[in-house]
Amino acid sequence: MSVDEQVLSYPIPNDAALEPPAEWARLRDKCPVAHVTLPSGDRATLLTRYQDVKQVLADPRFTRLLNAPDAARLSADEDGGLFSSEMAAIIPDGGEEHQHWRRLVGKWFTAKRMSAMRPQMAQIAEDLIDDMVKRGAPGDLKASLGFPLPVYVICDMLGVPAADRDRFSYWSDTLLNLTRYSKAEVDAAQAEFFQYMSDHLAAKRRQPGEDLLSELIAAGGPEDGGLSEIQILVTGMALLVAGHETTANMIGKMVSMLLADRSRWERLLADPSLIRTAVEETLRFDANAGFGLPRYLKEETEVSGTVLPRGTTVICSMAAANRDESAFDHAEEMDLTRSPNPHLAFGSGSHSCLGQALARTELQVVLEVLLRKLPTLDLAVPVTELERVEGLAVGGLRTVPVRW
Questions:
Q1: C-alpha span between 216 and 204 (Å, rounded)
Q2: pLDDT at 4
Q3: 143 phi, psi to nearest 5 deg
Q4: Residue 164 pLDDT greater than 60, yes or no
Q5: With pLDDT > 70 as the criterion, what percentage of the chain qualifies?
Q6: What range does the domain containing 122 cover?
Q7: At the N or C end, where does the chain have fewer CB atoms within 10 A?
Q8: Radius of gyration (Cα) for the chain, nearest Å?
Q9: At what angle do helices 111-135 and 356-373 cross, to 10 degrees?
Q10: CATH code assigned at 175
Q11: Residue 63 neighbours by CB distance under 10 Å
């Protein structure tokens, strides 16, 4: 089948909350470099094979900035979504500047620092689960645990009051908008978020704390090897969005996947040493990971034998790539012992997710605490009744009804 015979709508519609769309396997097999139409009506190129996605994510010619005049717009009235806004351009996209930014910010996300935070994360998880149990079954695991835990943790790291978390949630959603919000709503929310973070940074300058933003301020400006005021501000906004939205959704999806076939949950109860590999496997197996990563091509490049002209916008579907049989034996089966597991849930290359140690630690801690405190946990509705989050760049479930 030639690439041009069929143009799919993207994201590919899918009602099943935890299952992949049937098209993924067909695309990987027959049409690994596929033309798709985005919610904006613009055309892009979709990659679904493991090797291709990995290659593109590691290739500096594919930039994450979609603000070029010929880049595809993701949503119809987009003028400042997460990938194409002026804000996105403030954090350096490549080269030494990008590495410098990652070194400054990444010190806060090392595996060593994450292990030091484990006891505090476990305590937060215990308290949230106790509150959910007090309110009685059925409960919504996403609202009770999945959402608040990563928010408390990232707020603490940024020195931001967790009491403002409902506002962050709305601002995050508008920044991750594909089709849910109007341009006026997105613009207003971004302006509020920007002002909030400006005020927060001003307060940190007056009264520094033991947090990431205070440390970035203390490092001085670019002339001292630090970041500019606007870079610190945008870094704070980006970390707040990235630090809670994806993990909040992943906690709900992880628990749903493990309870969808309860023998998986029973296996972890019998052998909690599998928690680490189980978390990695749920990350690989997640069929509802969201939009994928868009990349803009600054020069002509070949992928999978297809020449992509300069100006092409490519969508990398890590979730489809994670189901590629050529990279994973029995890719369509969930194997809680799978190791090694080189999945692409956190991307690959120099732009791989900065917070992956944080996300992994949160997911492992949540699973440890849930298995210990609520061994009888189960879904309170059939899997077929779980509903996807729609209209945003991140994938998730609207609610995760559970009983115990």
A1: 10
A2: 46
A3: -70, -35
A4: yes
A5: 96
A6: 3-403
A7: N
A8: 21
A9: 40
A10: 1.10.630.10
A11: 17
Q: Using pLDDT thresholds of 50, 70 and 90, give the confidence band for residue 82.
A: low
Per the listing, tokens 């699973």 go with: 367
The stretch 326-353 carries a mean pLDDT of 95
The rounded distance, in Å, linking the Cα atoms of 317 and 311 is: 19
> Tokens 């005049």 sit at which residue?
69
The pLDDT tens digits for 211-248 are: 999 999 999 999 999 999 999 999 999 898 888 788 99
Domain count, the chain: 1
Token pair in block for residue 393: 């760049």
Query: pTM for this structure?
Result: 0.93
Question: SS3 string of 253-269?
Answer: HHHHHHHHCHHHHHHHH
CA distance 358 to 5: 43
Buried b (16+ CB within 10 A) or exposed e, 339-376: eebebbbbbbeebebbbbbbbbbbbbbbbbbbbeebee
Helix (H) or strand (E) holding 301: strand 301-303
